[in-house]
């Protein structure tokens, strides 16, 4: 059994995927627009624009994130979860933290903590919450 993250955007899915590609080196594995669907969507799932993303898959290291544009009317802001990006070292954490926080909001500056030599939290420009960290054992700071 596996649990995967599925992000819903309000008409900005493709922009977000491209942002994550540039910010953290993610790879867009698949992207299908509503206009490319072999079957028309049900009326309650008809998007505002046919070019909106119906389904996409993004590879981030060994992890996969799925995403689409939410065709539902109104907005449902992200809340109650964060994506965690484990980095090899403090330099990699800084690079990705700075890229992801551009036009976003830093909620905890990147820096050393009791559990990590480099940890920080942010909300990116799409409202997605992220935690970036370097694990103790990856940093060579394991318990003696």
Automatic annotation (TrEMBL):
Q: Which CDD domains match?
A: PhnB_like
Q: Which Gene3D superfamilies match?
A: 2,3-Dihydroxybiphenyl 1,2-Dioxygenase, domain 1
Which Pfam families does this entry report, sorted A to Z? Answer: 3-dmu-9_3-mt
The protein's matches in InterPro entries, at most eight in alphabetical order, are given as: Glyas_Bleomycin-R_OHBP_Dase, PhnB-like
What residues does the PhnB-like domain cover? 3-132
Which PANTHER family does the protein's record reference? PROTEIN YJDN, PROTEIN YJDN-RELATED
Name of protein: VOC family protein
Q: Which organism is it from?
A: Comamonas terrigena
